């Protein structure tokens, strides 16, 4: 029949034999299958016999417990109409019994399509798999043998499958890493081009309208002098975020340093003594200098009051400094928080008791960089005798080192916990930090290129002759500035000058920060007509509190330089990177605070070598690639890596305590959990 010629079915026959009984081929067929199947098999037998094919019974399959005869096979070859039929008979151990076997018949039929042969299913439980070609191979496996094969191969290859899955997973992870690195490289290469196009097509067109220019304001930094509204000034930040979104993801430029087992340690010890009800006297303090100079002076005064067992009156802030800020303590710091947070260490009052209001205090200026012995031996007798002392200066009145551990911890507790800014400054600071952190990290740059600093140091590199003369006149007008005739160029080569905005831009670019980086200026008004332009040439996304906040937001702080400095302090403290170009009081205070809060990345340029490299670059003696590699080599370990503060030859030459509170307020914690006093 046509269907029989087009279709070949393969049959599996389970054959069970024992060593004591052998059945004939026909007998096994008639005893093993139903009538329907027996009829089909007889039909096959009849057709094959009519073609002259002889049948011989298979050799009986005996079970054998030896490992060498766990399965047997036999091959028979017959000829059908000059066509070869290879019949292979395989026997596997039965999965449930060692004395029973299942048979597999492998039939290889050549050119069977033209043969009048019916191969039918010999058992209803068998499963057939078929493939057709000029050479048709058919294999039929019984259910019992198939189960055995599954169990055998599963047991042998389970571990291999698990290993294969793990290797596949690792391969997928590696491919993902490679893809992400490729994406970052592509984004970095495209960022500068994108920034240039964006600036040319959007920002330049937007802010180059007639009458629009960014100039330095007369009181508090640069701001937009155009008719743009305050809201538009604030939105400038969000316009520029598209520039800095792709090129600021390098962890080596932004991440904090690993502080290991170091941790804060300002809590009182087990032997801590609380202040008693009896006081040796009262201390009035007049702090001097700018905000951060007064801040560290207040910390020293609290520690001195602890040494003397004295009651401290809320300090007076300096109103006669260069900035002439009339703010009082309560205008900048939270007075109640200050008193409450230190109640277990020092007694603090807002004013003298009524009984001492008319007492004339003893005016005294403590010796700078003094140790605890000085106050106990020379100041304490005066306090007990006069009851009220008035300290005219508060800055640097305690040594950096060789003080009791409890005193050092108290200085840090005052600086980092007790001196909290008032709520309006805190809230505005948090708002501006949030704006700066939108979509990308930012650098807080303490440029210190201000008129008072340049006049005091005598530095005028990069300024015009008229600007240099203006600085000199100011230096002669300030009487308490002792040094009048200064060689500014020589001082610059000796690292005695702040970096210029142009030098700072070259430095940041050489370190690796892309031109799209957002930079917040932590300073007041920069001196020089072209100062800001030279910085923006390298980093166009430059901001200050004047351009970042609206006029309404800054209104309560206008005209109060110390309050604006407090705002800048918060933004610098929370920045991703802090860079300072001169070792001023604010640079020291912010650096130490960032170390205390987990060693946030803080970069201090090597001015001595940097200015030499800049001069060689601009004179054509070295290429940019040489300049870049040298700058990176010099500053590899100048990014705020944890290191101990070491005593120096003199207090003025050694590292300042508030610039690096380790040891003293940062301690090493051993794995046992004990704190080691350093």
TrEMBL record:
Q: Which InterPro entries match?
A: FucosylTrfase_pln (IPR024709), GDP-Fuc_O-FucTrfase (IPR019378)
GO MF annotation terms: glycosyltransferase activity
Which cellular compartments is it found in? Membrane
Main localization category: membrane
**UniProtKB keywords:** Carbohydrate metabolism, Fucose metabolism, Glycoprotein, Glycosyltransferase, Membrane, Transferase, Transmembrane, Transmembrane helix
| UniProt keyword annotation of Magnesium present | no
What pathway, per the record?
Glycan metabolism
Q: Which GO terms describe its biological process?
A: fucose metabolic process
| One GO cellular component, as annotated | cytoplasm
Q: Where are the transmembrane segments?
A: 160-185
In the bilayer, the protein is annotated as: Single-pass type II membrane protein
Q: Which Pfam families match?
A: O-FucT
The entry's family comment says: Belongs to the glycosyltransferase GT106 family.
- Listed name of the protein: O-fucosyltransferase family protein
Q: Which organism is it from?
A: Ceratopteris richardii
Q: What is the lineage of its organism?
A: Eukaryota, Viridiplantae, Streptophyta, Embryophyta, Tracheophyta
